[in-house]
Amino acid sequence: MIDLDRLDFGKGGGVVTVVAQDAVTGAVLMVAQADRDALERTLATGEMHYRSRTRGLWHKGATSGNVQRVVALIADCDGDSVLARVRPAGPACHTGATTCFGAAPADVLGALDATIAARAAAPAVAGSYTARLLGDRNLRLKKLGEEAVELATACMDGDRARAAEESADLLYHALVALRAVGGSLADVRAVLDARAARSPSA
User: Domain-by-domain residue ranges, the chain?
Assistant: First the structure.
């Protein structure tokens, strides 16, 4: 996941800066520091540990239950900071806010994908259209086709507003169809990242 030997703890007096990011929504949750011990504990447990000036070694969520489960730890180019992509079990901020940065811009696609995942995990939610789609293959594929045709028609008509609405509908139905075969938005992002990496630089 990360090679701790390549991190430069000395530059920061024994610690590196850690930026915690929600792996689903992309929201930046908090910024903290970690020494080698904290990151070793993080790797061993799968949950974020930090080094605080006042608390010392700090297991995030140990008392509140708002743990941060690690998805990936990525060092920056200088090795003196780390991006921690996590799945938070609750608010990151001590104020009870989701992030320490207030109303940070939301990744609406990430939030939508998280909602679809929740419906897949609990399909008995009363009146859930998403759960109905997930449980009915024929309906799911029929709606996917219908939304694609409606988008094409709106584009053919040059109707910008309707094309935007139909694009939103198609994205939703595409994410539901992807979830039904075990995929997620993260898979799409991985494909796009790989394609971008292969593209010639501008």
Answer: 4-88, 108-198
CATH of 4-88, one of 3.50.50.60, 2.40.100.10, 3.10.20.810, 2.40.30.270: 3.10.20.810
Tokens of 63: 């008392």
Output DSSP code: residue 115.
Answer: H
Question: What does the mean pLDDT of the chain come to?
Answer: 90
Q: What is the pLDDT of residues 51-86, one digit of tens each?
A: 988 889 999 999 999 999 999 999 999 999 999 999
91-150 tens-digit pLDDT: 899 888 888 987 655 678 888 888 899 899 887 776 789 999 999 999 999 999 999 999
Question: At CB < 8 A and 24+ separation, what contacts does 7-12 make?
Answer: 7/36, 7/39, 7/75, 7/79, 7/80, 7/82, 8/78, 8/79, 8/80, 9/35, 9/36, 11/78, 11/80, 12/80
CA distance 181 to 130: 14
Is there a contact between 83 and 12 (Cβ–Cβ < 8 Å)?
Answer: no
Q: Whose CA is closest to 182, among 128, 131, 117?
A: 117
In angstroms, the CA 20 to CA 74 distance is: 11
Task: Name the 3-class secondary structure at 74.
Answer: strand
Long-range contacts of 128-133 (CB under 8 A, 24+ apart): 130/176, 133/173, 133/176, 133/180
Superfamily of domain 108-198: MazG-like (1.10.287.1080)
